[in-house]
Structure formats: structure tokens, C-alpha cells
Amino acid sequence: VQLQASGGGLVQAGDSLRLSCAASGRIFSNYDMGWFRQAPGKERDFVATISSSGGSTNYADSVKGRFTISRDNAKSTVYLQMNSLKPEDTAVYYCAAKWRTSKDYYVWGQGTQVTVSS
């Protein structure tokens, strides 16, 4: 599977953005999907994941209640709706995929920059 993320940009604190990640190449519905982010000078961190069926989601504590991950298997796309954005959300956001029985994410998109100004 190949991943193409989009939707990043420059916004003000309190604004919203929706990231999209389009997948191609394999049967999308067999893959768990996730969003991760990397801020300047920091390691890449988990943001949210969604199971292959969409029935299970997980979020980092820092984004719970503000971000929502979803997927449309018919469109082979996963989304990250980000509300009430904060300057500390500034990072490059990456989508990732793994086979539903695999432990680790091993397919990565190219990243999309999100910058939140105060």
C-alpha cells in the first residue's frame, strides 16, 4: 500500500483542520491506519489509530476530545479531524498503515505540515 497525506496548513489557535490520507495499491480494508506527528527537535509520536474495520480507535491523551480519526474504506482514505488546535499541535503529521494482524506500523506517507500560531 502507498499513502499520500494532505490537508495541512497554517492556522490560528482554536481553528480546525482536516487531514486526509489516500491509500492505493492494496486492499485498504485489511489495514489498520494511524496518524503520527513529529515536532521540530522531537521524536515522532503517536496521535491516533483506527482499526481496519473502523470499529476501534485510540488517541493520545494530548488530543483526546479535540481530534477524531475516521476512515472511508470505499474511498481508501483515512481522515484526522483536528479541532481547537493549539500551538503545541504544530508538527509534521504522517499517516501510517499496518496489516491488521501486525504489531508495528511499517508503511508511511510523506507527511503534511501543520502550523498553529498563537
Secondary-structure map with pairings?
Elements: E1 2-6, E2 9-12, E3 17-24, E4 31-38, E5 45-50, E6 57-59, E7 67-72, E8 77-82, E9 91-99, E10 107-108, E11 112-117
Parallel strand pairs: 2-11
Antiparallel strand pairs: 1-3, 3-8, 4-5, 4-9, 5-6, 7-8, 9-10, 9-11
Describe the structure.
The chain is mainly β. It is about 0% helix and about 55% strand. The chain has no helices and 11 strands. The chain has strands spanning about 1-5, 10, 15-25, 30-40, 45-50, 55-60, 65-70, 75-80, 90-100, 105-110, 110-115. Strands 2, 4, 5, 6, 9, 10 and 11 form a 7-stranded mixed sheet that branches. A hairpin with a 4-residue loop joins β7 and β8 (about 75-80). The radius of gyration is 13 Å and the shape is globular. The N and C termini lie far apart (about 35 Å). The relative contact order is 0.32.
* Content of β-strand: over 45%
Shape: globular
Give me the secondary-structure category. Answer: mainly beta
Distance between the termini: 37 Å
